[in-house]
Design a protein that fits this description.
The protein is mostly beta strands. The chain has a single domain, classed as Porin, CATH 2.40.160.20. It has 1 helix and 9 strands; from the N terminus they run H-E-E-E-E-E-E-E-E-E. The chain is elongated. The chain starts with a helix and ends with a strand.
Length: about 160
């Protein structure tokens, strides 16, 4: 029964393509779609040797067209790490869809951290790799990330959940 449900869930985009083939690229993604997503996972703050819960929210717009632009998305994101010391981030994101449901993104932005009761702000670069599994009306899959400021870095692993609009 689980195999049947899994195959039905994974094949839904194929059925959508048959109804409106002009709207989809060669990997089943609707061109020009907007995605609202949330990644939930484990974060390791290297310099602080601390673990925490990572929540990463993003809104992305898949670019349209017949050329290279159809392999890119742009958007904005926000992140928080819930640990002993507060960490927040805000970023702009450029994502590339190089192969089927694999997504790589780079997000320059700023990170705010509270250390010893004092808030600090630094430029941060966030890198992320996601594999997307397409459900009937949502996307999900594993995600791994890395973020670096001048003084700190953290690693994340978790689950990505999103809804295309």
């Amino acid at each position: 029964m689980l195999i049947a449900i899994g195959l039905g869930t994974l094949s839904t985009p194929v059925f959508c393509q048959e109804q409106h083939p002009e709207k989809y690229d060669s990997h089943g993604h609707e061109q020009g779609e907007i995605e609202v997503g949330l990644s939930i996972g484990y974060a390791y703050l290297k310099e602080e040797k601390e673990k925490g819960l990572n929540l990463h929210l993003h809104v992305m717009k898949r670019l349209q067209g017949e050329g290279l632009q159809k392999y890119f998305s742009i958007g904005v994101g926000a992140e928080t790490i819930i640990s002993n010391e507060k960490h927040y981030g805000a970023m702009l994101t450029l994502a590339v869809h190089p192969w089927q449901n694999f997504v790589l993104s780079i997000s320059p932005g700023f990170e705010w951290a509270k250390h010893d009761e004092k808030w600090e702000s630094q430029y941060a670069t966030h890198l992320e790799a996601t594999y997307i599994i397409e459900g009937a009306s949502f996307h999900y899959g594993p995600v791994a990330g890395y973020s670096k400021t001048q003084d700190e870095q953290h690693y994340t692993v978790g689950m990505h959940l999103s809804v295309p609009l």
